[in-house]
Write a structure and sequence with these properties.
The structure is a single chain. By secondary structure, the chain is mostly helical. The chain has 2 domains: 65 residues, no CATH class; 73 residues. Helix content is 71%, strand content 0%. The chain contains 5 helices and no strands. α1 packs antiparallel against α5. The longest helix has 35 residues. The radius of gyration is 35 Å and the shape is rod-shaped.
């Protein structure tokens, strides 16, 4: 009876300890999951900053396009001229921003962050605890058989 209580206490202690240990590293609120979340937040903040910079550039460009000087410069760059003007042609884009960037999509690498679900953690810790208790039981059984001979 004493051996059964000892093994039961060992099993419960191992089950709780392993469950907490595995959950603290591999669980939904574990170390590796939180580390991956921080990396994802950092990448999302970078994308958000880039989008905000693009928005500010577009707002500045929009405000600039309403000025008379910008319209004259754009017309000249597109080939329009006044009488008696010398025309110079430029090969760069007539806008202060890159057209390919204007129409480009921002690619966000949306990967699922891996973690082990609580039920799976319980099953793993249950199996490991059971294996450790059985090994301990077999070891004690052999020790008793060797001691009684």
């Amino acid at each position: 009876m004493n051996m059964t209580r000892k093994l039961l206490l060992l099993f419960i202690t191992l089950l709780i300890s392993l469950n907490l240990l595995i959950a603290s590293f591999l669980g939904e609120r574990g170390y590796f999951y939180n580390k991956a979340l921080k990396q994802e937040i950092s990448s999302q903040e970078t994308v958000l900053n880039d989008l905000n910079n693009n928005l500010n550039n577009f707002k500045a460009t929009e405000a600039n396009t309403k000025t008379e000087n910008y319209l004259k410069d754009s017309a000249i760059k597109l080939g329009y001229k006044k009488e008696n003007d010398k025309v110079y042609y430029f090969t760069s884009t007539p806008y202060p921003f890159d057209q390919t960037e204007k129409n480009a999509e921002v690619n966000i690498q949306n990967t699922d962050i891996y973690y082990i679900k609580p039920f799976t953690i319980f099953v793993i810790s249950f199996i490991l605890s059971l294996i450790i208790v059985l090994i301990n039981y077999v070891k004690d059984k052999r020790k008793n058989q060797n001691g009684s001979k």
